Amino acid sequence: EQMLAIRTRACNPMTTKVTHYKKPVFVHQGHMQWLWDVDGRRYLDLFAGVATVSVGHCHPKVAAAAEQQAKRLWHTTSIYPHAPLHEYCEKLASHLPEPLQAVYLTNSGSEANDLAMLMARLHTGNFDVITLRGSYHGGGPQTLGLTSNAAYKYPIANGFGCTNTMCPDVFRGPWGGSHCRDSPVQTTRDCSCAPGHCVANEHYIGQLKETFDTSVPRRIAAFFGEPIQGVGGAVQYPNNYLKEAFQLVRERGGVCIADEVQTGFGRTGSHFWGFQGHDVMPDIVTMAKGIGNGFPMGAVVTTPEIAASFATGVHFNTFGGNPLACAIGSSVLDSIREDGTQQISLRVGTYLLTRLAQLRDKYEVVGDVRGKGLMIGVEMVKDKVSKEPLSPEAMNEIFEDIKDMGVLIGKGGVYGQTFRIKPPMCITKEDADFFVAVFDRSIHNYMDRR
Ligand code: PMP
């Protein structure tokens, strides 16, 4: 207990605030989909450090590649090229369709989006950027402007996008800033509890058009879209939304950026990249999280034309593309192929979605079950008539109960009302069944206490 108290004080207060853990789990060790705390208690990890541990905690092959490279060479900066960098860039590019072949390596998703925004502005000569309600694109001063999720905003009027959860207005700060409009969200308020009853695509496309007409006529640099919103709560767009949005953006001279930080590397099951599920071709793709299976890495991949505009300046990143990161990234890509990670995501994810849908039909408080592959959101409501989000206290109760039964999941959504399930993509059907039983029990317990 004393150790716990000391360590709790040492916690990053923001992290504790966001996660609302009553009693943090001090993790000590991991193996594939399993984590152990300092007391030796085992947990089924269904959150993977926020969709980051892609192939499994301390995956033997990735750990071996890291060890081997760590003994040979860690760091040179891009001033001295090295074989792992060359090999990795080639390998990563081979996972992307033409013309997306120019690779830039960073250390995080925020850095990748920051860089993508810079590229878009240099290439188009324009400044304004459009992002969507509920989006998360990073936590730095620039990328916070792209992030619309109010929970992550600081209360200062600094041009960093909108500060209102519902983002009804275009906000333009002193530096232009980002324009955050209603995204085609499937939150409870808008549509859930009745699959397929979403606000029509035209509504959202209409909003986007209005943004262009009223706020950014012909001056757009970029549009950022997560193929499925992650932090926003596994939010999916209506069919054709991204396709039509990309077209509108391009007609007005902007470039289209797919933020694949959560959706990349097979997470959505049906495709390696989330954008492929929308039948669109982005001009820039940003990625991080699953790219390094937990090792700090990120990347921006773009077209030769955009790369050429970017090459007019000097870009430098001390750690980006260091030998250790490249060796790890390379072995993650190999492991995804060898382990059939994407196929597991599709098979187990689809199964889990079906099982969770049974809980939606069983309980009044389970408003919506959505997602693709192993990127799943379960939206909780007070009841299916009012569609009001379940209170943070109730969410915490269920969350803690699930944790006490040995499963770790995440929370998210515009109102913090969505449980997020994004495990290492090596979980089994048995793990899925175990979680559904635990979730069922925890909701049952909650209903009993009400
Ligand atoms: N984009 C998306 C879609 C994300 O989910 C996140 C992180 N949650 C980021 C960007 C930022 O990545 P990082 O935390 O590595 O900076």
Automatic annotation (TrEMBL):
PROSITE patterns: AA_TRANSFER_CLASS_3. It catalyses: 2-oxobutanoate + L-alanine = (2S)-2-aminobutanoate + pyruvate; N(omega),N(omega)-dimethyl-L-arginine + pyruvate = 5-(3,3-dimethylguanidino)-2-oxopentanoate + L-alanine; 3-oxopropanoate + L-alanine = beta-alanine + pyruvate; 2-oxohexanoate + N(omega),N(omega)-dimethyl-L-arginine = L-2-aminohexanoate + 5-(3,3-dimethylguanidino)-2-oxopentanoate. Transmembrane segments: none annotated. GO terms for biological process: glyoxylate catabolic process; L-alanine catabolic process, by transamination. GO terms for molecular function: (R)-3-amino-2-methylpropionate-pyruvate transaminase activity; alanine-glyoxylate transaminase activity; beta-alanine:pyruvate transaminase activity; pyridoxal phosphate binding. It is found in: Mitochondrion. Keywords: Aminotransferase, Mitochondrion, Pyridoxal phosphate, Transferase, Transit peptide. Its EC number is 2.6.1.18, 2.6.1.40, 2.6.1.44. Its main location: mitochondrion. One of its GO terms (cellular component) is mitochondrion. Its cofactor is pyridoxal 5'-phosphate. The keyword Protein biosynthesis does not apply. The keyword ATP-binding does not apply. Homotetramer. Belongs to the class-III pyridoxal-phosphate-dependent aminotransferase family. Multifunctional aminotransferase with a broad substrate specificity. Catalyzes the conversion of glyoxylate to glycine using alanine as the amino donor. Catalyzes metabolism of not L- but the D-isomer of D-beta-aminoisobutyric acid to generate 2-methyl-3-oxopropanoate and alanine. Catalyzes the transfer of the amino group from beta-alanine to pyruvate to yield L-alanine and 3-oxopropanoate. Can metabolize NG-monomethyl-L-arginine (NMMA), asymmetric NG,NG-dimethyl-L-arginine (ADMA) and symmetric NG,N'G-dimethyl-L-arginine (SDMA). This is Alanine--glyoxylate aminotransferase 2, mitochondrial. It comes from Betta splendens.
